# Entry
Amino acid sequence: MFFWQLVLSGLSIGSLYAVVGLGIVLLYRTSRVLNFAHGDLAMVTTMIAYSLLTSAGVVFAGSVALTLLAAFALGSLFYFIVIRPVKEATLLGQIITTAGFALVLGGAAVVIWGAGTKALPFPLSRFRFYDVFGLRIDQLTIGSFIVSVITMLLLYLLVQKTKFGLAMRAVSQNDAAARVLGIPVRRVYAVTWGVSAVLGAIGGLLLAPVTFVSPTMMFDPFLKGFAAAVLGGLDSLPGVIIGGVILGVVENVFGGYVSTAFKSTVAFVMIIAVLLVRPEGLLGRKFQRRV
Amino acid sequence: MRLKVRAYVGWLLVTVMALGVALPAAAQERGITPTEIILGTSAPLSGPAAPWGATARGAEAYIQYINEQGGIHGRTIRFVILDDAYQPPRAVQNVRALVEGTGVFALVGMIGSANAAATRDYIFRNEVVWMTPAVESDPWIGNPNIRYLFVTYPNYYQEAKVLTRYAVEELGLRRIAVIYQNDQYGDNGRRGVIDALAEMGMEPVAAVPYELTDADLSVQALLIGQAQADAVILYATPTHGAMAAAALAQLNPKPQILSSFTLADPIMAALAGEAWNGVIVPSYFPYPDHDEKVARVLEIILERNPDLAQMSFNALAGVTFLEPLLEGLRRAGPDVTKESFVAAMESIQDWDGELLRGISFGPGRRQGLNRIFLARMVNGKPEPLTDWIVYPVEF
Amino acid sequence: MTQLIQRYEEEMALVRGGAAWTGLVLLLGALAALPWLLPGYYVYILNFVGINVIVAIGLNLLVGYTGQISLGHVGFVAIGAYAATHFIRATEASGVVAALGGPFWMAVFIGGAAAAVFGVLVGLPAIRLEGPYLTIVTLGFGLAVQQILINWPAVSGGRIGMFVPQPALGSFVLGSDRSLYYLVWTVVIGMSLVAFNLTRSHVGRAFIAIRDSDIAAEVTGVNLKYYKTLAFAVSAFYAGAAGALLAYVMQYLEPTMFNLYESIYYLAMVVVGGLGTIPGAMFGAVLLTLLQYGLSHAQEYLPVIYGGIVILVMALEPMGLYGRWLKIKLWMKTWPM
# Structure
């Protein structure tokens, strides 16, 4: 029973890692940018939701809608203002640029909202339980699991079934060819940044009742989302979901039976082991290059 | 290549000249001028520990009030806060800049065991007055260099023993567990629980650490459930304390939580919700709800810095670091020197301040406070459970 | 003024012409005089500047010259710091070590060597992994080193931390800011000379070939496995030596000092200064370290300012500030035209 309860809570946190990781993968596979500000972007949008819900007194659904809009705007704005001018930069240059953005966002959050931890008013309760087959599940876990799955399905539909998704995939294959074919490449990049930030915001909102709202709330979930993305393969959307779930379950079972002190480290050790066997991650495509 | 070396030489020359502009400051009795008393602190205002920056902000707001009242013996107080982002190398730099550059009379507080450890040799060597670093008591016990150190902060280790004994003797609970942060603070709590239980011929049923970066403590809670603990003693940051309480509330049956005084903040009830109901928390000064003087101080600092409302316990704690120093300065009179200040501090016996009560220092006594009381949180409000519980003076 | 190079020795000389020599002598004189002109806590900052210069030069050899990424460089600094501390503690009483001038020179070397061993270990996956995948391996390495140090008190002293004995040269204790300053900056000068010469040798050319195209490099006979691992080892050696100096300057070590943010700061130094140039790495390290310490008064605004500067430099001058300096120089030389 202890084991299954560990697996259950691992699935629940793992699906949130997956949502955070999806934003990283979506952006990476389209534009080859590894966004180190993904976590802080999610944190700032969650802070915006907090302000809307408390000071502005907007109802929950309205706050969520406004927050997701704000996330989209922030993401694409960052693309236009910063990333596009440094488009020629190397992977490292982009990592440093986004890490600089992360510093700015984290610092701004402390200045604007203060460093203290806040509680986000949330309609689902952690303290209403259902006992199923001897396992205890709370309302919040069920709710956030459902939202995660819906998010993943919507993303699947967006990428695979819409015209925009097609453009996105075309750009990720070869942006020069896509441009020749008349695809507005810049707009595709900007929208991808926006969607990625929205995915981060959903992750932040779902994490908020568990980790609470603070400028450092996304530090660990971002690293885990990144790890999930690498584990599954950075260019594979199903990969990051599987990666996130595996990560959540493995670290919980390890924490439960071996050591809670090394719970976070084990995630990275596992990734290194997997990468040594499969350098492109579990579901990633083999890295091909032209000389 | 030539281009590079020349440029390198050029750049370094520019840097060298830029640095050369800075000049050392001269001082007589450091930090005391005819019009001013200069105090300083290094605090985490950015970075992962930024919430505790509220202690420095609380002290700052209270000093503003003291200055509005005319200062002390005609001198106003200047309080210099430098950010260390919770990094020992920067804490060392800040302390040195405050002592050698600004020229402070005293340092007020210090957040983080590592920062205090990295700076303490320097502070002792330079005989700087140091008020209440907010860390464990171990480094001070038996230390011969603490002549200029004055501490009014509970000893985590003794507090953990008090909590454990209360759980066993008063609440009749037998299966005691501890969740602790994997650092000096948490380790003091863990050792206190183990030692107190050993004195009663018992052992903890579980001792579960967590890391400061952990974002989810459900595994820790499940381990407590697996051990069938009926009481959990909690040594955590406010955020992790709330995470742990919320996760523990899912257990069946739900264990009684007893937490460190660092979780006495009203924010806890807002974060953990109903999971914080019934939690037993100590404090080392009265709650604003139960004491008019404390309520008045809170009002004073919130008038001057409304942002502190969220972190009111930390802000008040910042004032407690400062309060005995102000009393010492008052007692030392207008011609204060470092030595006359020490003598004045040593004359403080069973003294009641606005926040702190029953504070005593003396020759050879630097631990001004050796008692706490317990309260139970009921619907976010503390209800005192015990009178003061005294533990031995250790330094 | 450009002059004609007539002999091979001139081409190979690091410092050429009277003006450069004068500048260098002036610079060294200024560096030697600085600790006598500045108050102690500025000298303490300069010691950190020197330490970060060493890390940045080493990281630049890996990132700027060889094109590999490390987001876990702080792990090498930590290994160097703890290895050096254990070496000093173990050999403090030893007569042989004292006869060789005390443990402190050797400690810098031991710190570097210990880190280099781990550099080889981290470098091995680099043979197979690229870009973001390598990033996460190095990131994981940095995080793992910190976690292991926190949870292994026998090595690190745990969260209580570990106090470092003061360096001594024979019976002469080198604890003061000034003597530490000379120690740190002698190592800085020595290691930057090594780096200058390394990048001009066949090793440096192999590194650059790998960066520009590893497949082309392999085709032309560069042993990828050997040189990639070597780049990690050399880079880690610099970081480890800097770690040993850090131990001396701080005289106290605690695992949380070695966190992910530090690794990002190191990378920022290299990128802001200018990738693939040694003066660039030096300049980035000097600027960002001074900024970090100088902005203590800016309090909670520091991260915003710091991050903003990094973004601005990247957006306006991806070649780094050193690249901008070269452009300005070129512009001045060709000015009237």
Notes: Chain C touches chain B through 62 residues (CB under 8 Å). The mean pLDDT of chain C is 84.
